[in-house]
Amino acid sequence: MNNDTLFKKKLSLLMTLGSEYSLPSLEKEQYLYRFDQDLQIRLGHNFWTEKWENEFPTDREKIILLKGVILLEKIYEKNGARGLMRGSATVTTLVFKQVEEKKLLNPRLFAWILLNRSSNLYTPFGGMKYSHIKNYAEYLAFIESEKSRESRTRETERIHSLNRERKEVEKLKKAEDYKIRIELTKDRNKFKNKLVKDYFAKNDNKFLDDIISKKLPFPLNLTPIEEVNAVISKTTQLSNRELEMLIASIPRKSASHIKAFKQLLVEQLDSRPR
């Protein structure tokens, strides 16, 4: 007997089991051992493929097949062949999902499944989370709650994904803004340095007057130390009032060489007669 003939013979026997709910002898029952696995190997393990559909094209055949594989597990259990029961890998899950997808499931069929299934808690739903279900109404309610939970989970994941994308955009924007600020700072510093250089290149002896009148065209801290040192001797020519105004014009928070210049001015003022 070739493989195709053997498969057809066993399939016919399985469909008899699914339609009549029993087989005439233990020998016939044992003849079907592992045929649920053979079905998966031949037609597809995890999905209802075109091969499955070609073999069981009608609604009636799908229902009979479902009953057949459920009763086959029961036969394993009855005959002490529990080792052939495949837990979560049971073929009943695949067939059950197809029957459900085709909207063939109803309270009567559902009650028959619960009444005739083996002790395998994965039969026929494919998950332990269904083990508490006692009737079709409970099943429908549980399915609806699972859909709602999955919907909430998807929405939560969507929000998390959007937040991650937003943070990534903000991170990139901050990096870009920082880069722009650095470039702007460099440009400003170049401009200020040129301003300082051009100012002292004129050398028109207005530095001290511009500090006092607050007309210096750049921050005082940018003044090179050599330019500060160059005007120290000129401060002795200032009146007490001018010296006081010069000291007052120098901010407390200044560069170290400007602070030193201010301290020198204070000491000079203190040494003068009042």
Helix content: 55-70%
The pLDDT mean sits at 90
- Coarse shape: rod-shaped
Terminal CA distance = 131 Å
Secondary structural class:
mainly alpha
- For the secondary structure, the number of strands is 0
Number of helical runs? 12
SSE order: HHHHHHHHHHHH
The biggest sheet amounts to: none
Rg (CA only): 46 Å
Low-confidence stretches: none
Strand content: under 5%
Quick overview of this protein structure:
With 274 residues, the protein is mainly α. The protein is built from 12 helices and no strands. The mean pLDDT is 90.
What does this structure look like?
This protein is mainly α. The chain has twelve helices and no strands. It has helices at 3-20, 26-31, 35-43, 50-55, 59-78, 91-101, 107-116, 136-202, 207-212, 225-231, 240-249, 256-271. It is rod-shaped. The N and C termini lie far apart (131 Å).
